[in-house]
Design brief:
single chain; 384 residues; alpha+beta; 2 domains; nine-stranded antiparallel sheet
């Protein structure tokens, strides 16, 4: 702005001098040499003012003589206006940049709080994993729960994180044992049946249908807590199943038997059962076997993948028309509705007692609603 003031002053001097003397003073170029840009070009335009003959009388000023100066002043006004506009635009840009910066800082503060809380939770989870790892190395944990002991434990008082830990401790007889998936929390302790024979042993059995002496058409509370006789037919309980998959990658295995003494198997390299807040949603992958993969069927409406558990009193299936659990007398990870239903009614033959296929169904093996004789579902850690 100081440059503009200087040029205004210089222009005024040139204007008055031109009027008084009828010519541009010699100092014009000297004045203009101290400025630059559009304004200087305007000032230098004064040279084009027609020269007048000097007289001792008052100069005659014509309209034509004033035009060059008026053009200069008009141009100067335009330049000044543009400069003001540019300054205003720069100011607006700076204001917007400051506003954007404030918003970014606020976002960073919010995200920092979120990540701090998340990190705190993850650190807690890491500590629990470290306790388990320490137990795997030393053979014990502060709570006395067996993780990977160096010698056979006293089974009358011992608990283990899972059946695989017991097997690695030297326990190779199938039977009922006490498990505690979280070594730091004895509230996670429960009895379970361990299969120490199938495919190398170390399996925690979470479901068995074999004798038909247990009713599986039950409500949410029963399926959450577990029911049945561990020596016969039972469901281990969704809360316990969640705990078994919570602390590391587990494999899942389905053993199926028909009425002709044939067997088929479906195994998965990965399975995870979410907590009750997410209605025990199930995820699985890495299929192997002969019975088919119910998690990734060609018909999306049959897939078990990412389904929540449903019972007749807690419907979480994807069917808009019916309650799958109520219709098919079961509790399961129904979609719309299913391709397998191992928790259906146990019948004493392959046929069921009505039009509704509500038996122990595995349509990837028998596609016409054949009811199987027996099933077992079991879990084992990936690294065993």
């Amino acid at each position: 702005m100081s440059t503009i003031k200087c040029l205004l002053h210089s222009t005024a001097v040139l204007f008055v001098t031109s009027l008084c003397y009828g010519q541009v003073p010699r100092q014009t170029s000297a004045i203009a040499s101290h400025c630059e840009g559009s304004l200087c070009n305007l000032i230098l335009g004064v040279k084009n003012i027609p020269k007048k003959i000097q007289t001792t009388s008052a100069p005659e000023v014509s309209k034509e003589g004033l035009l060059p100066v008026l053009r200069i002043l008009s141009g100067l006004s335009t330049v000044i206006q543009r400069e003001k506009q540019r300054n205003q635009e720069r100011s607006n840009t700076h204001d917007k940049q400051i506003t954007d910066l404030v918003n970014v800082v606020r976002t960073l503060v919010t995200n920092t709080k979120f990540y701090r809380n998340t990190l705190k939770e993850e650190i807690g989870e890491l500590k629990r994993h470290m306790i388990r790892l320490n137990g795997m190395v030393t053979g014990a944990t502060p709570s006395g729960v067996i993780v990977r002991p160096l010698e056979t434990p006293d089974l009358s008082s011992a608990a283990a994180v899972d059946c695989a830990a017991l097997y690695l401790a030297g326990v190779n007889v199938s039977g009922i044992y006490v498990l505690q998936p979280d070594p730091t929390d004895n509230r996670t302790r429960f009895p379970a049946f361990c299969d120490m024979e199938t495919d190398g042993g170390g399996w925690t059995v979470i479901q068995r249908r074999q004798y038909g002496n247990e009713d599986f058409f039950r409500g949410w509370k029963s399926y959450s807590e577990g029911f049945g006789d561990l020596h016969h037919d039972f469901w281990l309980g969704l809360r316990n199943i969640h705990l078994l998959t919570k602390f590391g990658n587990n494999k899942m295995r389905f053993d199926l038997h028909d009425w002709n003494n044939q067997t088929r198997t479906s195994s998965f390299d990965f399975v995870n059962i979410a907590d009750e807040a997410d209605n025990f949603r199930i995820l699985a992958g890495g299929y192997h076997g002969t019975a088919g993969d119910p998690f990734h069927t060609t018909n999306f409406g049959d897939r078990m993948q990412s389904m929540r558990f449903s019972t007749f009193d807690n419907d979480n299936d994807m069917s808009p028309m019916t309650s799958c659990a109520r219709t098919f007398s079961s509790g399961w990870w129904f979609n719309n509705c299913f391709v397998v239903n191992p928790n259906g009614i146990w019948y004493s033959s392959p046929t069921y007692g009505g039009e509704t296929p509500n038996g122990i169904i595995w349509n990837l093996w028998y596609s016409k609603g054949y009811s199987l004789k027996s099933t077992e579902i079991k879990l084992r850690p990936e690294h065993f």
